[in-house]
Amino acid sequence: MNKDISKTPPTVVGERFFTVEAFKYGDNITRLSALVFGLGNLLRGQAVRFALYIAAELGYIIYMAFFGVQAIANLGTLGTLTQSSVFDEAQGIYVTMPGDNSMLILLYGVVSILITLGFLCVMASSVRSAYVAQKALERNRKPDDFSTDAKSLLDTNLYKLLMAWPVTGILVFTVVPLVFMILIAFTNYDKNHQVPGNLFTWVGLENFKAMFSFGSTGLGSTFFPVLAWTLIWAVFATFSNYILGMILAIIINRNGTRLKSFWRFVFVLSIALPAFVSLLTMRTIFANSGPFNTLLMQLGIIKNPVVWWGDPTRAKIMIIIVNIWIGIPYTMLTTTGILQNIPAELYEAATVDGASPAVTFFKITLPYMMFIMTPYLITAFTGNINNFNVIYLLTGGGPESLDYYYAGKTDLLVTWLYKLTITNKDYNLGSVIGILVFVLMAVTSLIAYRQTGSYKNEEEFQK
Amino acid sequence: MKSRKFWVNSLVHVILAVLGGIWILPIVFAVLTSFRAESGAEKTYIIPKAFTLANYQRLFTIETGGLNYARWFGNTVVVAIFSCVLSAFFILCVSFALSRMRFRMRQPFMNVALILGMFPGFMSMIAVYYILKGFGFLETGATSLVALVLVYSGGAGLGFYVTKGFFDTIPKSLDEAAFLDGCTKWQVFTKVTLPLSMPIAVYTLITSFMAPFTDYIFARVILGQNRDYYTIAIGLWTMLEQEFIEQYYTRFFAGCILISIPIAILFLLTQRFYTDSMSGAVKG
User: Fold this and answer.
1) Are B99 and B168 in contact (CB under 8 A)?
2) Closest-CA residue in chain A for B120?
3) Min Cα–Cα distance to chain A from B118, Å
4) Are residues B83 and B218 both part of a single domain?
5) Which residues in chain A (97-136) have CB-CB distances under 8 A to chain B?
6) 3-class secondary structure, B112
7) A446 CB near a chain B CB, below 8 Å?
8) Residue B231 near residue B219 (C-beta atoms within 8 A)
9) DSSP assigned state of A86
């Protein structure tokens, strides 16, 4: 094969494979840049770039030598030395000898692995940078100096400048914690293995098995009812709000209704209360000796107070009703605008054909609304699966049940997750629930979003 | 035919009146109770025997061993200001980069953001808690409020959807015209895109400003037990605890009404800016 041709890079190379290309067609200095970061830049007159690359490499080597290697090695066992009490002869008392802290070991391990991944990215970038410099020289151009590089940050490379801080924030506050918590699902970090007194270790899929199995050690008898209620709740909460809100909007919008803006104002007024305020207010209103029971007793409808939150079925119905109270005004606001946009000809044609209001609703209004509001419905549905506030602030998940493992009859998966982690310190189980909720959300949204046009044609929309 | 229409209309108005009553009564109850002169929690009557403004005044007087509403309000406002500025900055930067630039990690970043968004928000709270504790943020009340700002705004860059969608609607020809005039991308961002995006920028600012007022769980985990450093949401929740409910029941409602007013105004503003921004950046 002709050597010259093999040295010529393909004309169109996807950016994705740029590093591979650099390795394939770069000279030896370029390849060596993977070992000594910035070497290619140094030899081609980009001293500042070299300094930055080599500083990153040295920093990483020092970090790994003093800390990182050990941190990653510890991941295998998550610590071996249990904290213990040793009798100190000289002082005549028991002294606590510090042991390994499994939680910190896991955290440092995750951080070290992420730093290593970052290091690999810098390595690739070093090779690419050397290759770019090499090509510039081959074309008899001077490689960019540092001030040009710095200026490009405000222009062609602006995205680096813009993304740097937000991505750092996302890494520290979302990615690292999430990876850490996902790993916890595969350990026995529960209330019997609390740090720093005890160690916890890897247990594989034990927690998942426990979650799905019944019997004395299994949590299936809690998990499945809670899952079922979560789904029932999400379906009812989403569709009751949607349908009833729409009907309300239609009733207010219809021709015969007087004082349209007055009625809208009446219903929108409740939006003025922040959701947590409405929820806490509702909780007190339906308390055992709260105003609602008082009112019913004064009217003589009931003799003794009705327990609204204490009975599982009644509490569930009440939660859905209160949620309707809170949610309908929002739906009404969103749907009013869309309703007014439905072409009037459709309705006129229907009237001419003698369609009854019910037929008009089911054949014209509902299909039209469904078409426009499907993405809204999906968001609402997934939001309701994770609707922590409504449950936690109304019933706290209660009434408590002895059949369940630290869950009440109205607990959703998320509030159970909260109780397991914050109150009960069974972090491993909480983490399993979190992963299962993720699966639930992912399945729902993938099925739904794949259908919407905005997902498929993102680029088409931009002119 | 005409009488049938009359009856239908009457029926509709009766239904609306009943429903309206159901929607108004809880609010009326909350307002009435906030002005109730008799202390104590639940009564055997609903309409107060005497009215007073004292519940509102006492929210702002400091009592030893008591709950300090004014202080909570101050805490929340400070947290909200810092976190909304940081969040809005993050969101605008990410949205512009994703909407206007094409780079290698663009699609992977958007996919990762989609996946991250599907985990329950506070699943990672335990790890965040220990990370913040490790950095020493949770030692004192004041630094735990800083920690709360970081929690609210740290991952904000993931909430780019609405803003990016808005930037996408700004015609690219505007950018190109600016490039021809010798603008850098940074200048396009600050001089073309941002001025055209005022409604959405304000919308982003206000929504992130309102979050700390209504968030309950994150604050609960981060802020610990020191009541002086509570935010308004956990503070009001505390008023309903066994220990305080008898003494603070009426003040709880006063506090709720008081906090609702600014939030309602902000909510109305977001609606306006949201509608404005949905009608597109460049008109006619």
Assistant:
1) yes
2) A434
3) 5
4) yes
5) 103-104, 107
6) helix
7) no
8) yes
9) E
Q: What is the C-alpha to C-alpha distance for residues A350 and B216, in angstroms, rounded to an integer?
A: 49
- ipTM of the shown complex: 0.84
CATH number at residue B224: 1.10.3720.10
Three-state DSSP class for A172? helix
Structural tokens at position A435: 């992963």
**Which residues form the domain of B39?**
2-56
Indicate the SS3 state at residue A425.
coil
Same domain, B130 and B81: yes
Radius of gyration of chain A (CA): 31
B176 and B215 fall within a common domain: yes
A52 at B interface, C-beta within 8 A: no
CA gap B140, B234 in Å, rounded = 18
| Cβ neighbours around B77 below 10 Å, total | 16
Query: Residue A124's closest CA among A203, A17, A226?
Result: A17
What phi and psi, each to the nearest 5 degrees, are found at residue A84? -140, 160
Residues B259, B118: one domain?
Answer: yes
Q: Does A14 touch chain B (CB under 8 A)?
A: no
Clarify whether residues B112 and B185 are in a common domain: yes
Name residues 213-252 of chain A within 8 A of B (Cβ): 248, 251-252
The rounded distance, in Å, linking the Cα atoms of B160 and B270 is 17
**Spatial separation of the C-alpha atoms in residues B223 and B140, rounded to whole Å:** 9
Integer Cα distance of A251 and A332 in angstroms = 10
Residues of chain A contacting residue B271, judged by C-beta atoms under 8 Å apart: 333
Query: What topology does CATH give the domain A220-461?
Result: MetI-like fold (1.10.3720)
Q: DSSP letter string over B73-98?
A: HHHHHHHHHHHHHHHHHHHHHHHHHH
Considering only CB atoms, which chain A residues are within 8 Å of B132? none
Q: Yes or no: say if B101 and A173 are a contact pair by the CB < 8 Å rule.
A: no
3-state DSSP percent of chain B in helix, strand and coil, to 5: 75, 0, 25
Q: Where exactly does CATH 1.10.3720.10 map onto chain A?
A: 220-461
Tell whether A461 lies on the interface with B, counting CB pairs under 8 A.
yes
Within a domain: residue B283?
A: no
Task: Provide the residue-wise pLDDT of chain A in tens; the chain has 463 residues.
Answer: 343 444 444 444 445 567 888 888 888 888 888 888 888 888 888 888 899 999 999 999 999 999 989 889 888 888 787 777 778 777 778 887 777 888 888 888 999 999 999 999 999 889 888 888 888 888 888 888 888 888 888 888 888 889 999 999 999 888 988 998 899 899 888 888 887 778 888 888 888 988 888 877 778 888 999 999 999 999 999 999 988 988 898 888 887 788 888 888 888 888 878 888 888 888 888 888 888 888 888 888 888 888 888 888 899 999 999 999 998 988 888 888 777 777 888 888 888 888 887 888 888 888 877 777 777 788 888 889 888 888 988 888 878 887 888 888 899 998 998 888 888 888 889 899 999 998 888 888 777 766 665 555 555 444 4
CB-nearest to B24 from A170, A269, A418 is: A269
Q: How many domains does chain B have?
A: 2
Instruction: Please give the model's pTM, rounded to 2 decimal places.
Output: 0.82
Q: Is B212 inside a domain boundary?
A: yes
B13 and B70 share one domain: no
B107/B136 same-domain check: yes
Asked if the structure places residue B100 within a domain, the reply is yes
Q: Which of residues 353-412 of A touch B (CB under 8 A)?
A: 382, 386, 388-389, 392-393
